[in-house]
Amino acid sequence: MQIDWAHFSPLAGLAGGAMIGLSAGSTILLIGRVAGISGVLAGLVPPRRKDADWRVAFLLGLFAAPAVIGVFRAPAPPVFDIGFGTIALAGLLVGFGSRLGAGCTSGHGVCGLSRLSLRSLAATLAFMASAMATVFLVRHVFG
Amino acid sequence: MTRLAITFALGLIFGCGLYLSGMTDPQKVLGFLDVAGLWDPSLAFVMGGAILVALPAFRLAAKRRTSLLGYAISPPPSRKIDAALIVGSSVFGIGWGLSGVCPGPAVFNLGLLDGEATVFFAALIAGLALERLLPLFLLAASPAEVEQDGR
Hints:
The structure holds 2 protein chains of 2 kinds. By secondary structure, chain A is mainly alpha-helical.
């Protein structure tokens, strides 16, 4: 294993992570809701729409973040370097899988682990392992 | 209204944290997932930082029946570790590994008004809807099971 020292950014990671934790922790303490983004989104998708107002408000804040950051420095658009077909397939798998598994990186990885939930630990290990295996196959076997 | 303004601010903080941490950059995420290549461990610090701050809040919330603003606190979710949890999470991981994008960054990147990010987000919503509709398809396909479940 070789460490990518050129891109390693532990302090920005810790600081950004702390902000994510501040948001998720405040959401459960103030609003009483879990800030798992796939869950927040899914609650707005038919046929099971429920308590839409806070979901929309949270997502609008997340959506507005690039504009607010842009006041200081315009965020670069994401670089995918995969075709539109793969992007669409990946999006579909992310949406479908995160709902079937009842959570994503924020729901299980941040909120669930902060709750010391074994179920979320199992989910986090599963998606980390499958994501690492996927990158291994794409970059080192078929790449 | 105050509650929605606060919730908007919480979403904004979440988004700024995602950006600062590098989670909104698919190549940064893939650098973390590529343990066999040049590995960038930064995202482990993101999760560590997030849990460090969120853990006390969730502990406190677990002891309360209502939130500090007086709203009901979501009950703890199921504790079951079942096939749906593992299969679903693994499927999610494949999509995350292919693209480097998970749901939070997908919403953030949509705010950049980028074409590819919009395609990803639309597909993500389709995936959510598909999962929601799946039980209906299954119920339609196997009426015997419907009776068994008493639904």
